[in-house]
Amino acid sequence: MMMDDDNKLTGAIKGIVTEIQRFSLQDGPGIRTTVFLKGCNMHCTWCHNPETLKHMPEIMFYPIRCIGCGKCVEVCPEGAHTMGNGKHTIDRTLCVGCGKCADACYAEALQLCGKRMSAKQIMDEVEQDKPYYDNSNGGMTISGGECLCQSPFVEQLLDAAHEKGIHAAIETNLSFDFERIEDVLRKCDLVMFDIKLMDDEAHKTYTGVSNAKVLANAKKLDELGVPFIVRTPLIPGVTDTDENVSAIVDYIKDMKHLVRYELLNFNTLGGAKYESLSADNAHADARPLAKARLDELGAIIDRAGIAGKVV
Amino acid sequence: MSAIKFVNCYSPEEELSYDKRIALLRQRKVDQTAEKAKLGGADEDDYGLIVQDEFKFQLQPSHKNGSIYGYDAWSQNYCRLLSEHPLYLDALDAFVGKGFLFLERLRPPKKKWNPDYAYPDLQQIFDRYNIISGIDNCHHFTPDIQIGFDLGWGGILAKLEEQEKLHDESHADFYRAEIAVVKAIIAFLDRMTDEIEAQAERETHPVLKQNLIDMAECNRAIVSDKPKTFRQAVQWMCWFSMLSRTYNRGSAGGQLDEMLRPYYERDVEAGILTDDEAVFYLACLFLQDSRYFQLGGPDENGEDMISHISYLCLEAADKINIACNLTVRVHDKMNEDFFRKSVAYLFKNKQGWPRYSSDNALVEGFMKCGYSKELARRRVAAGCHWMCIPGMEYTMNDTVKINLLKVFDVAYRDMMAHADEPSIDALWECYKKHLKVAVDATGAGIMHHLKYQSKSQPELILNLFQHGLIEKGLNITDGGANFYNMCVDGSGLAVVADSFAACESRIDREGKLTYAQLTELLDRNFEGGEYVRQMLQHSPRYGGGCTLGDAWAQKVNELYTSLVRDLCNQYKGVNFIPGFFSWSNTIGLGKTVGATPNGRKAFEPINHGANPNGGFRRDGAVTSMCNSIGAIQPGYGNCAPVQLELDPGIVGDEEGVDKMAAMIKTIMSTGNTLLNINIIDGKKILEAHKDPMKYPDLVVRVTGFTAFFAMLSPTFRQLVVDRVMSVNGSRLEEDQ
After folding, report:
1. B4 by DSSP, 3-state: which?
2. At what angle do helices B145-166 and B172-202 cross, to 10 degrees?
3. How far is A256 from chain B (nearest CA, A)?
């Protein structure tokens, strides 16, 4: 159902983009520009980009920047904004994500997350840093949300990047029917995907879906011959156990096209975003793992004799 | 007070290795910096200056206004200053050569320029456009230390005396003053050496005693003669630096590795120098003064000049790890290993060194002025944002600033008063008119300075290290230099570009505002108009990447460059080179200009150097900023530097260093000329701003120069904090 909705939105010429981040250093090799697409087919309880979960554009609100001008109240056709006692509130049940309030909010207290953009519009931005990609073996990374929810658009973007001689990678959860994503995967210069949890029940509990397709597709991707990086976000008390990391290592260690396995330490950067979306943060109290613990987990990768990295 | 001595400070049993001595010297430096900070600090280079309040030198004025002008007054005061100057000696150190004050700063405020050569008409224009004319400023060109290495002070004296006999009376002032100065220097070095010998007798620690004996021998050898060993050469440099600083603060460095390489290789071959000793000496050199030195780069034939001693320089800077102004030259045949090592040090120490210059952009640009490639390659990084051929050029580098924003303000007011219908086209026409007046006046000011500077402040030290001046008997401003390449910097480019872009987008294109409404808001400093201010501020900005603001910055650059280059037609034989830089005048230049159409409030600082205004992009992308700065390079061999603030978190491992090395190379190969980098943790700098002494050894690159953060005034600390926050700010905000 979700997929069908996505295709209606993006099957034509535009994708829904939450952000284009240049000088991105953590989303693949070299210096990159990361294009974040909106919408995800998993709902991980720890997601640090919660603004990318929903498929439709939505408004983010940063009260600290609000100057109380009231322009949003004036321009909102749905009456979603109210100002009272110097306090600005949004009724999200009324908001349709049209973005008129964000257009009028020059203080950037209101920001529309999810803009419809063509591949050309995106490439105009991405291309500006080509010398940096060339010197660092970097390029463009398409991320999300889950970028393959907009797979036709991702295909267009990959083609556009290759036309310009730009290395193109994707970050995905691989949780799709393989035939639906096979053509896109073949076009990638690098695929970075998560294996979050090997225990399927836990996977369902924390992400909302089974890990069956992820694990099966990992093997199929290896057979395609596309280089890939496997990653596990380290969520305290969820994914950061020796058992989980060991099981993942066992699963991937013999894959031929594995570039490396990365452990991504928990970060708290999503905290303010949850507030801006008036959403609950299930891991608000979680903190990054200590270096000693990271070293222990890193040692598991080393013992398996595969390339690894703890970020 | 006759001396500051650190002798007999350690028990004879205490083990004092080179590393231990460096650590102790570094701690002493940090403590002295804390003292300086207590005395009010300073918003400039560290200079290696020892601040104390016991020794007071009484200036003997030559003019009724209490100041000193001309050859005799400067010479006599300097000679007397040296004869009274206290001696500083530290038994841990390999060298002596600490200074306490600058003669030029002992003059009464605002009495620098000889009033017999006033320029009231020009001053009116300077005031109108807030131009820092450079008239009365000194040094800011590069001496060729090799002259000193070849001759020694005694050789220089002999040459002066020989040339004096060959010249007529019209050069008598020059020779009389210079000869007296060199004699005073030799006497001062003799006195210092006597003191070292005396203290060597007293010192009880065996290692330090031997050090003082060696130090005395080293100094005795170079009182008059030229240096012959590595240690003597470095000691000679320390003395040169102190003596020149004491005169008028001038002490640009040069190509450090190549200057010292012959001594290093000779001593190593003779078995009288080890690498450990060389590193120790170099660390002591960096401790002595924060002079600007270049490492690497191409020789005249384009071959890389990195040698083993270049590595030792990096190693020494790493060990002493204080405010080091080292520049690594990036070029096509660069030694990749050395370059990568330098990047690793930058991120390891997070002290703002080294910085990087681009050979390609600088050489190609300078060649457009008519110079050969060989000469262009000899122009080395020697100051905050500037290059100079040692011993060959007079430049006034970094002393001339045209406040482009003030020019905009005058133009805007002119348009509102006289244009039939205000518009972006009318505004641009007014800007062109006023910028020409400002640039032409600046050119006239430089010529005035050249004509009369020797009547105000002759360069009695630096003249001696220029090729041909002793032979000609001329002060450097009097036509004796090989080349006159006058630096003319524009300041405030980003505010001007953003103001043009805000007017064009919000008024002319979108019709959201009228010029009359804007004027009213500017006049009341946006009071009651915060919404419109935000709208203006969020117009497409310079630094955003192919934005309207970027287009305006390029247009202003083209105009500015053509106007400065046109000065070369007005004054034959003098080359005028445009650049964009503010130095640390961002606050002062901002204080003269009211609110501006880019949403800047009245009297707020202008943008730093050629950088965009803070918040130029939501992601603060370094690449976008650097592309924009690369696109506004005037392109004649001077700089519009990139000032980069990076979070240390972006480099966690070797792969991170590789990425940064690639980033720096790309910045240097996309039109940019100079890259200054701070690696600063946002939270740390906020804490240090609140309580500077919490991190007394924190060093930041303020503009072109590095300084101890604790030494800076609160206003300057705020400037650095604002720059860091414009990159890391959103992250911290989200983190809270």
Report:
1. strand
2. 130
3. 23
A138 contacts on B by Cβ (under 8 Å): 659, 662
A56 touches chain B (CB under 8 A): no
**What was the pLDDT predicted at B728?**
47
Q: Write out the residue range of the structural domain in which residue A257 sits.
A: 2-55+117-310
Whether residue A8 sits in one domain with residue A29: yes
* pLDDT attached to residue B731: 42
Q: Please tell me whether residues A107 and A200 are part of one structural domain.
A: no
Complete DSSP assignment for B675-711? EEEEE--HHHHHHHHH-GGGSTT-EEE-SSSEEEGGG
Of B534, B650, B652, Cβ closest to residue A107: B534
Look at strands B87-90 and B3-6 and give their pairing.
parallel
List the CATH number of the domain containing A303: 3.20.20.70
Chain B contact residues (CB < 8 Å to A)? 530-531, 534-535, 537-538, 545-546, 618-619, 621-624, 627, 650, 652-653, 655-656, 658-659, 662-663, 665-666, 669-670, 731, 733-736
Name which of B724, B676, B23 is nearest B352 in CA terms.
Answer: B676
Residue B359 CB partners (closer than 8 Å, separation 6+): B297, B298, B329, B330, B331, B332, B377
Beta strand pairing call for A168-172 and B292-295? unpaired
**Residue A287 CB contacts under 8 Å (≥ 6 apart), including other chains:** A236, A266, A268
Residues A31, B545: C-beta atoms closer than 8 Å: no
Q: Do A136 and B618 touch (CB under 8 A)?
A: no
What is the enclosing helix (H) or strand (E) of A37? strand A32-37
Paired tokens of B67: 């100041």
Q: Which two three-digit tokens encode residue B442?
A: 């600046």
Taking phi over 0 as left and psi of -120 to 50 as alpha, with beta for the rest, B8 belongs to left
Q: What is the pLDDT of residue B732?
A: 42
Helical H runs in chain A? 2-10, 71-75, 100-104, 119-126, 130-136, 151-163, 178-187, 200-207, 212-224, 242-252, 271-276, 291-304
Tell me, what amino acid is at B523?
D
- One domain, residues A123 and A81: no
Instruction: Kindly compute the dihedral angle of the four CA atoms of residues B84, B90, B95, B101, in this order, to the nearest 10 degrees.
Output: -40
Nearest-angstrom CA–CA distance, B679 and B701:
9
Q: Note the ipTM here.
A: 0.92
- Helices assigned H by DSSP within B94-144: 120-129
Q: What's the pTM value of the predicted model, to 2 decimals? A: 0.93
Of A25, A67, A135, the CB nearest to B666: A135
Q: Which residues of A touch B545 (CB under 8 A)?
A: 22, 125, 128
Residues in chain B where the model's pLDDT stays below 50: 728-736
pLDDT digits (tens, 9 = 90+) for A254-311: 999 999 999 999 887 777 777 777 778 877 888 899 999 999 999 999 999 999 988 8
Residue spans per domain, chain B: 126-143+390-619+627-635
The pLDDT confidence band at residue A8, using thresholds 50, 70 and 90, is: very low
If we measure between CA atoms, which residue out of B36, B29, B37 comes closest to residue B6?
A: B29
- Considering the domain architecture, whether residues A12 and A68 belong to the same structural domain is answered as no
- Contact assignment for B658 to A311 by CB distance below 8 Å: no
| Sign of the torsion angle spanned by Cα atoms B331, B332, B338, B344 | positive
The tally of domains found in chain A comes to: 2
The answer to whether the Cβ–Cβ distance between B623 and A129 falls below 8 Å is yes
Kindly state whether residues A90 and A215 are assigned to the same domain: no
Amino acid at B731: R
Are A151 and A239 contained in the same domain?
Answer: yes
pLDDT tens for B644-688 read 988 888 887 888 999 999 999 999 999 999 999 988 888 888 998
Distance, CA of B95 to CA of B83 (rounded, Å): 20
Same domain, A62 and A91: yes
Q: The domain spanning residue A101 has which CATH number?
A: 3.30.70.20
**Are A77 and A151 in the same domain?**
no
